Amino acid sequence: MTVLLRVGAEESRARLCGMTRRAPWRLVVLVTAAVYAAAGWYLSEPGTFWSVDNAVRFVQLESLRRQNYRSLAAVYPASDLDPQHDFYPIAGFSYRRGGRTYLSYPWIFPLVASPLYGWLGHGGLLVVPALAALVVTGLVALTSAQQGSVAGVAAGLLVGVASPLLIYAVVFWDHSLIAALTAGAVALLLPDAKNPDRKARAVLAGLLLGLGPWFRNEAYVFAAAVVLGVWVAGPSWPVVWVLGGAALALFPLWAYHLWWFGHPLGDKGRAVIEAVGQPGLLGYLQGRALVAYEVLVSLEHYERALSPERTPESALLAPGLVAGAHLLGVGLRRDSLAWTAVGGLVLACVGTAPALLKLPVTGLLPSAPFVALAWIRPAADARDRFLWTVLAAYVGGVIAVTDTPGCSGARATSCPRSRCSGCCAARPWQRRGRVTRGCGASLRWCWRGCSRAVWPCRRWG
């Protein structure tokens, strides 16, 4: 009887531990959903858009609806007065073919959102971005909860409400959707000793990665980074299955692009390749330097990407970030509350400086968690090697292939970097005690300062 009671108690304890590990991700998703609802109420307004990119996608959606989904061409109400579309208001985002005007962005995202817009009005435009962002948050919290409940809550909230994902969840844009696809692929491919046979997971992950380019071209770069991460983490055999799954989704897209544009990467992909290779080796290296500055440390307004004006401020704050992160790492390794407090103070100053100085933040904000966590938690096992390789390879890939400096480079890396950094952030929380609590408080203040620098950037198109 004693043995049976002991076994029953152990089973109950195991079930309770399993519940406490599974429950936090649901709580994180609910809290994040409430934050998104408030942010959507504050940032979104019928008939207004965050940028021209959002408005162009809405024009695509309206064109599909007005033509009963029988044509991908853009509707131009003034076509009777301007038959050649010489005065088309968004000519920079369009091209002419067969006497009709087509918009340059992929039409899949507007097509997916169109029924929701018909049912819910303007609010329907935000359903897909918000749900996709919640999927990312839930996946990060769920996978990080393997390191403990605190780790799952911390990582999920950092990614969900203290990263650029907060903005992309409440605007009509496809960044959060790409983040959801890639987050699913990363979650499926995370090294896990309990699942040694990963063929089906690898194929499904590849399929998710292959769906990304249907919406945005930078998904190609992320897919390549994931493949490299799988190969580095080892064993390398899942790479074949990942590539096979990606091919299933990519071959139809390449065939369509080849038929319509004459290039498997489409018109935008072909333009990027031509622009990157055009200036020669010296021009290419100069362009890469500007893009790297923008993506990693820039405090410039995106319109000043080609002629930076705030390099002294960037050069001052970036080393401060590295120094604070290094001191924080020293505090964790030595279990010293004093070192942790000093590092946290430096990070808090760096995080709040852009807001206090009213500086725009382009590259420094998404780089902050990447740099800080690299000092706090170096790669120690296969899981870490996979995440850090994906993160570094993606950022390096975007720097290598972005055609011109501008806000696109930092925007393309912001969500994936935040997602992978959130997964890596779970690891330091394994160490409990006062130093860990101090580290968490320091990171929270740093993120709060950076978020304040972004929140006033509310703008209407």
Describe this structure in words.
The model is unreliable at 1-17, 428-439 and 441-461 (pLDDT under 50). It is globular, with a radius of gyration of 23 Å. Helix 1 (2-43) runs antiparallel to helix 4, helix 8 runs parallel beside helix 10 (238-260) and helix 14 (337-356) runs parallel beside helix 18. It has helices at 2-43, 52-66, 108-120, 127-144, 149-161, 165-168, 175-189, 199-211, 218-233, 238-260, 266-277, 280-296, 311-334, 337-356, 364-376, 382-401, 407-425, 434-454; strands at residues 94-97, 100-103. With 461 residues, it is mostly helical. The longest helix has 42 residues, at 2-43. It is 69% helix and 2% strand. It has a two-stranded antiparallel ribbon with strand order 1-2.
Structural class of the secondary structure composition? mainly alpha
**What is the overall silhouette?**
globular
**Major sheet: order of its strands?**
1-2
Biggest sheet features: 2 strands, antiparallel
Overall pLDDT level? 78
Radius of gyration: 23 Å
Proportion in β-strands: under 5%
H and E order: HHEEHHHHHHHHHHHHHHHH
Cα distance, first to last residue? 72 Å
How many helical stretches? 18
